[in-house]
Amino acid sequence: MQKYAALSPYIYALDNPISHLDIEGAEGANFNSNNPKPNTIIIIDTYMNVNGPLSPTNTANAKAHHGQWNVILATSMIDAESQMKKYYGDSKAKNVVIHSHGTTDDKARFVFGTGEQSGRFSPEVLQAYIDNPKNEDGKGLKRLPEVHYNNAVAFNGITNMIEDKGNLVIAACHAGKGDEGNEMGKVLHEIAPNINIYP
Length: 199
Known about the structure:
Blueprint: E1 20-21, E2 29-30, E3 39-44, H1 56-65, E4 70-74, H2 77-88, E5 93-99, E6 110-111, E7 120-121, H3 123-131, H4 146-159, E8 162-171, H5 178-191, E9 196-198
Parallel strand pairs: 3-4, 3-5, 5-8, 8-9
Antiparallel strand pairs: 1-2, 6-7
């Protein structure tokens, strides 16, 4: 009380819960910048150019806008997974949002890359990855194009960097729409049964 005489004892985290923690209700403390932030937003953009979404100005703006969230701006799911590994190391995220473009038709698909790594996730693509995780040739096995397979592996890698009971939100147009959206949800949960996924 004497240390913070100007503040009411009913004010949580020094009246700044965005920047401070107050676990014991006694004193707010700054987040330890040496520890990874528990929440990550991954922005995968397919419209890449010199002054585009991943330019230094837009990168700085995105990071400022999302505050206490770790922001990953990536060109593909493969790129996003690589950045996640570098950031989290042996620790895990609690909440992850993957923000991507979706298709403009009625199919539940979301875009996961640009250029040579471009493609779309659909229930069929993800189910083929589940059925054939090593992408082998064989009787009754559907083999995916390499770019689809590599991005599916990277997506699976990202889900493994989310703690049990953590949350993954897929923010893309049509990703959870209609019957195919329901199928997308089922397939996503089959890939990562230990986390909550919201397409």
